[in-house]
Write a structure and sequence with these properties.
229 residues; alpha/beta; 10 helices; 13% strand
């Protein structure tokens, strides 16, 4: 079993889910009292948020420094427990001495397994508006649709001001579902929950759409890699 280096989730609410899925998935595969080997850097989001105001260089340096600490501690490979942080993944993958498992690659595999070619993407403003995520998916032959600007702003606000604080409101859920249905009307065959906190608000039973829970998909891919010979 390889040792996992987990940076985040960025918010503690998704960190809990990563830790649970990684250990449950390992136990399902190995049985008995088995659980995952994990070194975890739990992010103080207030600290990271201050660095964001200084610029991407400072954020990158913070991420890389703490990933290297995980590697020095004995992590055989690392993951970033947040979609938005993958803005820095390409550079990190060239500079780290161990593999980094990209969340969008794992998500693309799940989408391709369903035979879908066009999907909706919900996430932070950076994930929806920058091309780092969409370009990664496009390499796998997947076209991405994002909500209109006003809806992107709403989703972003809910992520930072509700989900990160463990607030899950029925009003926000209803609006999310409306936005998802609008994307489906434009041709989205499924929906990427491209922020690791969104699956705590939107569940499979809430919609007829196929959901791609990036946190769960990423965790499953991580367990698979950790147990691969």
């Amino acid at each position: 079993m390889k040792t996992i280096g987990l940076f985040g989730g960025t918010g503690w609410v998704s960190t809990l889910e990563y830790y649970r899925y990684l250990n449950q998935g390992t136990n399902e595969r190995l049985g008995g009292l088995s659980s995952a080997r994990i070194f975890l850097h739990s992010v103080n989001f207030a600290e990271l948020n201050e660095l964001k105001k200084q610029g991407p260089r400072e954020v990158y340096a913070y991420i890389k420094t703490n990933l290297l600490r995980l590697i020095d501690a004995g992590a055989d490979f690392v993951i970033l427990g947040a979609n938005t942080l993958h803005l820095h993944a390409d550079k990190l993958m060239t500079e780290l001495p161990v593999p980094l498992l990209h969340i969008a690659d794992a998500t693309a595999e799940a989408i391709n397994a369903k035979g879908f070619q066009k999907v909706g993407l919900l996430g932070t403003m950076l994930t929806m508006e920058k091309d780092f995520y969409k370009k990664r998916l496009s390499k796998h032959g997947i076209e991405v649709l994002v909500p209109e600007k006003e809806d992107r702003e709403f989703i972003d606000h809910v992520i930072w001001h509700e989900l990160e604080k463990e607030i899950f409101s029925a009003t926000s859920k209803s609006r999310f579902l409306e936005i998802m249905n609008q994307l489906a009307d434009k041709g989205a065959e499924g929906m990427i929950l491209g922020c690791t906190e969104i699956p705590l608000l939107i569940h499979p039973e809430d919609t007829r759409l196929e959901l791609f829970d990036t946190l769960k998909i990423h965790a499953e891919a991580t367990v698979e890699f950790a147990l691969k010979d």
